[in-house]
Task: structure prediction
Amino acid sequence: MAASETPWANYIGGQWIKGSGQSIVVNAPATGQAFDEIAGASESDVGAAVEAARRAFNTRALYDMRPHDRMLLLFRIAAEIRKLSDEIVPVLVKENGKSVGFAKDEVECTAQYFEYYGGIADKVHGKSIPLGSGYLDYTQLVPFGVSAQIVPWNFPLEIAARAIAPALACGNAVVVKSPELSPLAMCFLATACARAGLPAGYFNLITGYGKDAGEALVSHPGVDQVVFTGSVETGRKILRNAAEKIIPAVVELGGKSAGIVYADADTTSVASSAAIGIFAHAGQVCSAGSRLIVHESIHDEVVEKIVTWVKGQTMGPGEEDHFFTPLISAAQRDKAERFAMIALQAGATAATGGRRPDGLPGFYMTPTVLTGVTPAMEINKHEVFGPVLSVLKFSDREEALSIANGTEYGLASGVYTKDLSLAHWTADRLEAGTVFVNQWFAGGNEVPFGGFKRSGFGREKGVEAMANYCQVRNVAVRI
Result:
């Protein structure tokens, strides 16, 4: 299949469908200019996709497949994704704004999700329960049916794969809605699935606006389970829909993640780790370390080293592989700048950055480090989703914990110290689904990921994610 055979369209029941919805114009974040468009999906297209998924699921093709063969199928999808990498990367860079290196990493991570869950596919099984003489009792792990998945724009392929792969490994059929701000690269997933021999209808792609295609998908009566990553506001709507239909939902709703830096921490290592934790992909990462809570004795030294690290990087288009790349849209850039300005007006100080740069087209925001931030400031409470780091001081560990846990979010957190006893003491008290110790973004596809509090519930990644995509049936037999 040539690259030209991967069109920008919906993929329903094994066929590319233009759709009857409003087409989506795609902008390049590095220039701010439109460069392509993709077909949109209407409510009827969503219905067709759900029906295709239902038909596929009802064939029991994946469920009845020998687990070893299902494993090999997911491995083939991974291989096809890697073969498409040279085509995917430039599309992902242009539509998403990320660097070439980050785009390559995302494609590789996408393939690895299919390998990881392929490796689990032949190890999912029930158990026998002894009930005494005359009885046989056993459990089965049964797929839910049609899994509806709403994918965010920041890591569209990677976040899609972490839900699609375990869903298929358990035998479900999937309908995915691509993000309207970054929808093009998602089409390559359909190509990979087709080339790998996934039965038609088990993977369906809807390309449309959230208010049309997204709402129609999560509210469709034929959907058996929902997976969503995005804002708290949209997550609430999806959960209300799921509650109304009484179906399970997995939601990851963002964060305001904090790293605690104790007095004995290696300040050079902290500076590098914290900078990558907030400035990678322009801060557009759900688990970004947007707050750094530093012991007062080393506060100035840490800030100085972060600023030095920032000045050692370059800003520009992702095609040129700069570290500081644009935000996804003008609205996102304006939001980040507005939060920084409000913080400065409230008494914070910009150690570096604070506003958009001069002389660059596109949606850029200078990497910003704010000092003098207090727990009461808006910048400490709300998710910016941009390259803005808030630095706060503390004098004792109880104060540090109070600041770190003092928001409605609980997605990720961090601890920097050479004292492992103190690290474990702190990790045990942080209200977050993930705790990084001495390296932000430590971990991998193998570890569970999800939030406490309003950062959502349910776990993606790792073996734990498999529980989202199958339900337990007990079979009790009187012999």
